[in-house]
Amino acid sequence: MRKAAIFFLAISLMIPLSGLAQKKSTSYFTSGTEFIFSFASIDNNGNDGGNVMRFSGFLHLQGMYNYDFNKSVGLFTGLALRNVGFIYNNPETGLKKKYRTYNVGIPVGFKLGSMGKTHMFAGYEIEFPTNYKEKTFNNERKDDKFNIWFTTRVPAFYNTVFVGMQFKYGLSLKFKYYLTNFFKQSYSEVNQDGITEYPYENIDVRIFYFSLSFNLFRDAHFNYTKEEMMHKF
């Protein structure tokens, strides 16, 4: 049932909204996808290092409601589905670990520049993790893998900030930083010997990433003047 809900959210965000965007109005809807190159600042009981870049191209969907005061200043909010995580080569054990969550995000931000063309944007986004996955590799061989829906291994939500640049033809570059630790350090579990353990007690991980998005804030009625359209066709 939960998987069906996530699938329905994904399909909803993919619904074309170009008809609304073409209206001559200061408010409109846009949508887009995202390719994420993520890194992490890791403090594992006083030891740092071991982070490996992680690329993720699936599944990232974004739907945005835009309100432009004029062609230079605007606000936006919306809904996003995002696959975020990191890769860690543990220097103490030699094991490689891969972690990720599927998050539902609600951004709030502003835009400055030429709306529909080149402009900068920045803001805050709260993200709610839904599905958690963890993989363990030993000498490049997968030893363990599991995923859990709505686990307490991670916080109930992440606080994030972002800044980026939207270019003329719908391509945008964004940098995002997670203010919240990826793990919930108070999480506990009982091992086979009946002893309570805190696997993330001394681990502090702050994810940050660079991403490329397509058609994120592109409003069709700003892209071409009437003369440009006549010349185009």
What would you call the shape? Answer: elongated
Order of secondary-structure elements: HHEEEEEEEEEEEEEHH
Range of helix content: 10-25%
Determine the number of helices (DSSP H or I, runs of at least 4 residues). 4
Give the terminus-to-terminus CA distance: 48 Å
Query: What number of structural domains do the residues give?
Result: 1
- % residues in beta strands: over 45%
Tell me, rounded to a whole number, the average pLDDT. 84
The low-pLDDT segments are 1-24, 220-226, 228-233
Number of strands: 13
Computed Rg? 20 Å
The biggest beta sheet is recorded as: 8 strands, antiparallel, barrel
Largest sheet, order of strands side by side? 1-4-5-6-7-9-10-13
Kindly name the structural category.
mainly beta
Briefly summarize what is shown:
By secondary structure, this protein is mainly beta. The protein is 12% helix and 55% strand. A hairpin with a 6-residue loop joins strand 5 and strand 6 (96-113).
Tell me about this structure.
With 233 residues, the chain is mainly β. The protein has one domain (2-232). It is built from four helices and 13 strands. The chain has helices spanning 2-13, 18-21, 220-223, 226-232, and strands at residues 27-44, 51-52, 54-56, 61-68, 73-89, 96-113, 119-138, 141-149, 158-166, 171-178, 189-190, 196-197, 203-214. An eight-stranded antiparallel barrel has the order 1-4-5-6-7-9-10-13. A two-stranded antiparallel ribbon has the order 11-12. Strand 11 (189-190) and strand 12 form a beta hairpin. It is elongated, with a radius of gyration of 20 Å. The chain starts with a helix and ends with a helix.
